[in-house]
Design a protein that fits this description.
One of its GO terms (biological process) is tRNA methylation. It holds the Pfam family SpoU_methylase. The protein has a single domain (22-164), classed as SPOUT methyltransferase, trefoil knot domain (Alpha/beta knot, 3-Layer(aba) Sandwich). Helix 1 packs parallel to helix 6 (150-164). The chain has helices at 33-45, 61-64, 67-70, 79-88, 127-130, 150-164, and strands spanning 22-27, 50-54, 73-76, 92-96, 103-104, 113-118, 135-138. It contains six helices and seven strands. It has a seven-stranded parallel beta sheet with strand order 3-2-1-6-4-7-5, with helices on both faces. It has 168 residues and is an alpha/beta fold.
Length: 168
């Protein structure tokens, strides 16, 4: 029997962070408006400080929802110079990619001040971007195909960062 005083709230207000997140999502050029828009929406839900992107893909506001309007987004021609500048500002650059030296995300401790670098849907993170990263994490895959969709993997990585730093 359900407690008559118990109320289910469908949309409860977001939790306040103890401090702003020092997490930036940086996207290599994407092929899909849908994937990029899903990444922006997830980034907004996780209260990232900014999204950096390259390429000509557009954000669909119907998919990104409030993230398209409220989240600072910057566009650049090339990602490596931006990443090098962020590294000088003290950010740790972490790629989300399967490489020979990548670390299982379940065993990776993020730094509070992190740039999460997301690769292209087909090509992943290019060599010129990989060469400036401090670390690379991967999400284990237990079936086929060998990797998750880029937007899905980004959501998983953002969730793990937030799990490690729930208060910001």
């Amino acid at each position: 029997m359900e407690d008559p005083d118990f109320e289910h709230l469908r949309h409860k207000p977001p939790s306040a962070l103890d401090q702003p997140r020092e997490l930036i999502v940086a996207c290599c050029p994407m092929r899909s408006n849908v994937n990029l828009s899903r990444i922006v929406r997830a980034a907004s839900c996780c209260a990232v400080s900014k999204v950096v992107m390259c390429g000509n893909v557009k954000i669909d506001p119907k998919i990104a929802r409030d993230g398209a309007e409220k989240l600072p987004i910057s566009r650049h021609r090339s990602l490596p110079p931006v990443l090098k500048d962020l590294k000088k500002e003290g950010y740790t650059l972490v790629g989300l990619e399967q490489t020979t030296n990548s670390t299982d995300i379940h065993h990776f401790a993020f730094d509070r001040k992190t740039v999460l670098v997301i690769g292209n849907e087909r090509m992943g993170i290019t060599e010129d971007v990989l060469s400036v990263l401090d670390a690379v994490v991967e999400i284990p895959v237990y079936g086929m195909p060998y990797s998750y969709n880029v937007a899905t993997a980004t959501c998983m990585a953002l969730y793990e960062f937030c799990r490690q730093f729930p208060g910001g």
